[in-house]
Amino acid sequence: MLTTIKDVAAHVGQEVKLGGWLYNKRSSGKIQFLQLRDGTGFIQGVLVKSQVAPEVWEDASKLTQESSLYVTGTVRQDDRAPSGFELDVKHVEIIQVAEEYPITKKEHGVDFLMDHRHLWLRTPRQRAILTIRAEIIRAIQEFLDQKGFTLVDPPVLTPSSCEGTTNLFHTKYFDEDAFLTQSGQLYMEAAAMALRNVYSFGPTFRAEKSKTRRHLIEFWMIEPEMAFVEHEQSLEIQEQMLSYVVQQVLKNCERELKTLDRDISKLEKVQAPFPRITYDEAVELLHREGFTDFKWGEDFGAPHETKIAESFDKPVFITHYPTEIKAFYMKPDPNRPEVVLCADLIAPEGYGEIIGGSQRIDDPALMEERYAAHNLPLEAYQWYLDLRKYGSVPHSGFGLGLERTVAWICGLDHVRETIPFPRMLNRLYP
């Protein structure tokens, strides 16, 4: 019967057929050890010369790295094996003998591996990362679905910027100017007024000429928006969601985390509630830690976020940023209008901001003032102003950057490994 490596545990002592690829091979002369992969996992096939037909031995001898084949054999439990099982091979059916494979077990440079990203994905490490990425996505959607959120898809092509910035990819929309979205948030606010609690999940684009290990040009965002939800309740939903996601990864991706040598003790601490400090307190912390030149009103950079995170063993919310450095739609604190009701969630271990959110302005007069202060074109944003004219309510939302979250949970050095085909400042291939 045709099965997968993932499911061999259910077939111990039985003969099965696997379709896969040869990841590696070694031979002692009388035994061939076939390292097999099939997309669901890895297993070693043991082929004993004296126990198979001569043509089976010969066919196995022809196999090169990444050759495709069907293998038939008996599943045997083996606690020494990484997967816990081995396959006593009885028959080999070659589908294709692969050409000389460019990625070998020797050390390769990053540029070489990125040029061969379409093949690099086949390695155990990359498979583990993408499996964990898929689990993170599944867990986020499961959490939000269970909380009564509705998935809504905002447009990728937009007539204007979400935050009034210039870091946008410009294109022509027939005879009009258009841009690739940098956030679906404004459209999700409209959806929240129709469906109450909503979220989007899709690609976003930022034309920032940044080369840091935290930045991609194209990345994926989960953006919930919630009607009748104020700042404090939004923070509770964020920490509950992230706690749920991390615990689901620990539960369902134990083998993948082991492949990555991830220290799971740090992830086990990620349970709500999370610590919270204000922007003011964060500035004081930085001054105590030697960042004496940092001035109130500046935004935090990577070194600042890392230093702040070092004081905590969980993700930490930094709340109430200065109004002047945040987006036009964020609601000022009624008791202190020079700061807004917002928060950035900073991941531990130097991974920086993974969630940004705020309570949105619901007063139409104040929103018109912010339009004027930010010189926003009314013709592009009139529809957004309409949301405050026809049944405005308190509402909040946030955006989680998927790739930074994957990098943190997996313990990766660079976000380029968190997405199947990364788009970076100097990389559009493959």
Automatic annotation (TrEMBL):
Gene3D superfamilies registered for this protein in UniProt: Bira Bifunctional Protein, Domain 2, Nucleic acid-binding proteins
TM ranges: none
Residues annotated as domain Aminoacyl-transfer RNA synthetases class-II family profile: 130-430
Gene Ontology MF terms in the entry: asparagine-tRNA ligase activity; ATP binding; catalytic activity, acting on a protein; nucleic acid binding; transferase activity
Keywords from the named record: Aminoacyl-tRNA synthetase, ATP-binding, Cytoplasm, Ligase, Nucleotide-binding, Protein biosynthesis
Catalysed transformations (reactions): tRNA(Asn) + L-asparagine + ATP = L-asparaginyl-tRNA(Asn) + AMP + diphosphate + H(+)
UniProt EC number: 6.1.1.22
Gene Ontology process terms (BP): asparaginyl-tRNA aminoacylation
Homology family: Belongs to the class-II aminoacyl-tRNA synthetase family.
Name of the protein: Asparagine--tRNA ligase
Subunit structure: Homodimer.
GO cellular component, one term: cytoplasm
InterPro entries for this protein: Aa-tRNA-synt_II, aa-tRNA-synth_II, aa-tRNA-synth_II/BPL/LPL, Asn-tRNA-ligase, Asp/Asn-tRNA-synth_IIb, NA-bd_OB-fold, NA-bd_OB_tRNA
NCBIfam families documented for this protein: asnS, PRK03932.1, PRK05159.1
Annotated signal peptide: none
SUPFAM superfamilies: Class II aaRS and biotin synthetases, Nucleic acid-binding proteins
UniProt-annotated location(s): Cytoplasm
